[in-house]
Amino acid sequence: MSKTVFEKIVAREIPAQIVYEDDLVLAIRDLHPQAPTHVLIFPKRLVPRIAEARPDDHKLLGHLLLKAAEVADQVGLKKAGYRLVINNGADGGETVPYLHCHILGGRNLGWPPG
Length: 114
Prior knowledge:
Blueprint: H1 5-10, E1 18-21, E2 25-29, E3 37-43, H2 58-74, E4 82-85, E5 101-105
Antiparallel strand pairs: 1-2, 2-3, 3-5, 4-5
């Protein structure tokens, strides 16, 4: 099975504009931003999607969300606000089978989305 784009980024096989990195997660600028600020944050260890997360992934998932908030602050979104999006499955907009969270901001994000 071929590697996903996120696995290739973690392995440094393809370049990415890294915004944040620690032992568990990596945050990068999205190549096709859907808002003025669009950052992706994902675990370094493959979790295919949120529906396939295991109970022992709870610390990793909590870390991911806490770091998403820190990254949003780091890129200047804290004051005006931002949206976190995790897609799951085809109807949910998932295009890469690797859990990742979109951090979107820099403009008013209407509701409902889509």
